[in-house]
Amino acid sequence: MDFSERTYRQLHRQDDLQHFQVMVQETDLDIGIRKERFSPELVKWIEDTICSCRKPLETYIQKDPGFQKALIPYEVPEDAPLIVKTMSEAGRLAGVGPMAAVAGAVAEWVGKAIAKRSRDVIVENGGDIFMKTTRIRKVGIFAGDSPLSNRIALEIHPEQTPLGICTSSGKVGPSLSFGKADAVVILSTSAALADAVATACGNLIQSERDLEKTVEFASQIPGIKGCLAIKNDQLAAWGTIKLVPMNV
């Protein structure tokens, strides 16, 4: 899973931010912050933050391996770690297993921590994004072989953030999908929820005929702000979605 060395990462990078990569085991984050906030010490602190995010999740999975394997909503005890409960609740609302929310949950955990040190922050984790911004930004849409891929973008305004922008595809990437969507993009103030709902929506799409029912499904879930679904040369959208050309 390199996606041509993850070239899709160029679609959310911003000229005014310093972008860099931080990896801890399977976690591979592309992070953008204000240039004046960047330092080697910050990178080390982010590595430690990722570890502090991963550790309670890994420890919980060792005790309850069913959590990691579940493909349907999975209940966890009240004393479970916060990230575990967040993923479980996201999966419950979306109707999928809790691990469908893991990339968004990690991006949000790390992003919120960094936001205390940089007023502008973008954390991307396998196509799932947490964003906090003080200016209008454009996030390109990678949709595999669709003619719309790399041609359209979401315009995100500061008042919409902090925001999760999460993408699922039945054709691109390692994540499990039972559908054939070129891309489903979900917006929510919870990146974990956006991630889980993107997976659920992606599962619904087999052909262009499924686009409308998919965005209708997303619109019924509390906490979802917008949905964009793409199959071949067709798309459907609902909610707080502003599409603009990518290269303008």
TrEMBL record:
Lineage: superkingdom: Bacteria
Record NCBIfam families: PRK04334.1-3
The protein in question is named ApbE family protein
This protein's species is Desulfosporosinus acididurans
What lineage does the source organism belong to? Bacteria, Bacillati, Bacillota, Clostridia, Eubacteriales
